[in-house]
Amino acid sequence: MSLDREAGAGSLLGLAVMASIMMLVALLVPLFTGLGLRQAVGQAADASALAAADVAVGRAPGYPCAAARATANADGATLTGCTVDGLVVTVSAERSFLGIRLAAISTAGPPGVVTN
Known about the structure:
Layout (H helix, E strand, L loop, with lengths): L8 H49 L6 H11 L3 E8 L2 E10 L2 E9 L8
Antiparallel strand pairs: 1-2, 2-3
Helix pairs in contact: 1-2
């Protein structure tokens, strides 16, 4: 039996494995990038709520929602909602990635404050 017919089979198998790995990477990189951006939107919402709460309690000058908007924009997100209830501020922020809307909501205020 001759092994001449088997020549090149390893190369073809190697190419198939490399192509499979490349396809897997091409699918996973956008997925993990989106997950990272989702975390970034959550952090932008948290920072915006904290900045707005600082203004609401008098630690910083200005208007709470304006401070929240400026903070969200600085973090690369868009402020989509801002509600001030006494000293407690609730904000929502979003960002788009590959046509998918990534959103987060965060609330901040001084400790011990109860909202309705």
